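User: Here's a protein and a ligand (zinc ion). What would the complex look like?
Assistant: Let me lay out the input and then the predicted complex.
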Amino acid sequence: MVKNRQFQQPNLPEEPMQTEKEDDSLHASFNVELPFDIPSDVEEENIADDSVYDDDEDVPAGPVTYTVIDNATQRGKPKLVDNIGFSYTLKTEKNGARTWQCSVRNKTIHCGVIVHEKDGVFIPPSIQHNHTAAPGTLTATKIKVTTPVHSENVRSGRERKDTNKMSNNVNTADSMIISLDKITDRSKEHSISNSCEIEDRVRNLEKSNRKLESENFELKEKFLELQSHSMKYNLTFGGIRNQDGYEENTEDVLRSFLLEEMEIPNVGDIQFQNLHRLGERSDGKERSIIGCFTRFSDHERVNRAAASKLKNKPQFSIYQQYPREINERHKKLIPKMKEFKRQRRHAKLVYDKLLVDGEVYNLDARCEAPPTIPGQPLPNNDGDY
Ligand SMILES: [Zn+2]
């Protein structure tokens, strides 16, 4: 081992070492070259940049310089312009450090070149712009900012924008007001036509209601007439004593009454279709007897005899039977009839009317509201026939 070292050490000239190293590994030679690849590429880019600038007559020689111009953008922000022809807008600003982004950012070209600024020192971008420079940008920007006309134009431009916006708003508001007015008018028309329609409907309803009321009244009167007509053969006998309660033979009782109290001849010839007592009276008097004669002549014979034969027997009464409604009308007319009779005037009830000297006394008697007087002072046989 030592021998080898000794041998080797004297044989270590510069050239053989290199030869040995090259022989040791091919990989080593790559390692030597590899680090140089990247910087050489960067250098080539820089060279390429220079060549571009060289083509442009206006591109100044020497280092790139930067100028910040305040109020240079339309929004009044500062702009960074270099002496080559690139301009930058302020991207970020913090603790005296600012980043500026190339102002070429439109739909077709978006340049991402950034210039860093720290305490007034600018660090040129490490990458190239993807567009050509615009020489004279610095001067043009300076002129734009310092020329009053420009700011005036900007201001008036902004004012114009604001004014346009305002007038647009006013126009919108105006059209909204007009629309509202139209809606209000329409709703007014609608409510007017609605209320007219309602009034018409109410008028029609009232009209048809009056017609129905009138028809109902006529029908009611017609029904009363028919009911009265069906009672034409009936007489109501009041005050006849009940002989044996519910065991009573009412027909025998009535025939006895007609014979004994009214002195009607040939009572045995009188025929009745129906004969019965009415229900209890509210005044506690004897229950009335309803007699339905078979022949109207018998009805008339008995009815006519009543006036003279019962004149002095007030405990008894004989009346033509009528429906309750007609009885109620009679009840109102009877006091008047008695009054006229005391005056020696000819007064009598015909159906539901009082005739005084051949004239109808009260035309409105039929129009009065139906009475609601409780009890049954006068006989009524509604539903019995
Ligand atoms: Zn750019």
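Summary: Residues 166-230 form one domain.
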